[in-house]
Write a structure and sequence with these properties.
This protein has 252 residues and is α/β, with parallel strands linked by helices. Strand 7, helix 3 and strand 8 form a beta-alpha-beta unit. InterPro entries: MTAP, Nucleoside_phosphorylase_d, Nucleoside_phosphorylase_sf.
């Protein structure tokens, strides 16, 4: 099965399947399961977007997908652009991350089960999924680039001073990439991210940033997002040995 994780604005675009509550040792996760296409939809913020990014139960979400038999995940992240050439309405395929979060549970290996794991994240996003996403974007003729995702704690937007710093080390800013990508890696799930650029960041934009601007851009990109999701679902998926064996050299 393939899991589709949606973020801001995505629940109004992707909303198909039977709703189920999945119980995990880390809490419950609500998903939509479409058995006809072997797809599980999970909305980080809830269908009504009532969970802020720093309160998302990332461990329950990723474990629920694992328990359902998902082996590949397409994550959709709404982001702000740190670079003028990365324009709102375009896509960024995340190929690395830098995180500035503070209070999130970020590992399944916290010592409770007696295991210590130092997971490799030299390529945090599955190379196979990343190449597939790029291929499908090229086939559709959609504008995109690759880039480094800077993950902040939220829920506030960033200050001008923060953005001036972040743009020296990354390309886009969001609040949800971490620890999701690392948790997927710890469970040996193939995880790729396609980021929808909804706005320019504070200080780069010539106007005050509002959440309505974010939703407006996501709505304008609706058809493109749906097309890529459909392409991912319909693509013949092979097992990825890179992610499948990642724990072999990680456990102490």
């Amino acid at each position: 099965m393939i899991g589709i994780i949606g973020g801001t604005g995505i629940s109004t675009i992707l909303n198909k399947g039977r709703e189920e509550i999945i119980n995990t040792k880390y809490g419950n996760a609500k998903v939509l399961i479409d058995k006809e296409s072997d797809v599980v939809l999970l909305f980080r913020h809830g269908i009504r977007h009532n969970t802020p990014p720093h309160k998302i139960n990332y461990r329950a979400n990723i474990m629920a997908l694992k328990q359902l038999g998902v082996d590949k995940i397409l994550a959709i992240n709404a982001v702000g652009s740190l670079k003028e050439e990365i324009t709102p309405g375009s896509f960024v395929v995340a190929n690395d991350f830098i995180e500035f979060t503070k209070e999130r549970k970020s590992t399944f290996y916290d010592g409770e089960n007696g295991e210590v794991v130092h997971i490799d994240v030299s390529e945090p996003y599955c190379p196979q999924m990343t190449e597939l996403i790029k291929c499908l974007l090229n086939n559709r003729g959609y504008k995109y680039c690759e880039g480094t995702y800077v993950c902040t704690e939220g829920p506030r937007f960033e200050t001008k001073a923060e953005i001036n710093f972040y743009k020296t080390i990354g390309d886009i800013v969001g609040m949800t990439a971490y620890p999701e990508v690392v948790l997927a890696r710890e469970l040996q799930l193939c995880y790729g991210s396609i980021c929808t650029v909804s706005n320019y960041c504070t200080g780069i934009s010539k106007s005050r940033l509002t959440i309505s601007e974010v939703y407006e851009t996501i709505n304008e990109m609706e058809n493109e997002i749906l097309n890529i999701v459909e392409d991912i679902i319909n693509y013949k998926r092979d097992q990825c040995s890179y992610c499948k064996n990642i724990l072999n050299d990680a456990k102490m």
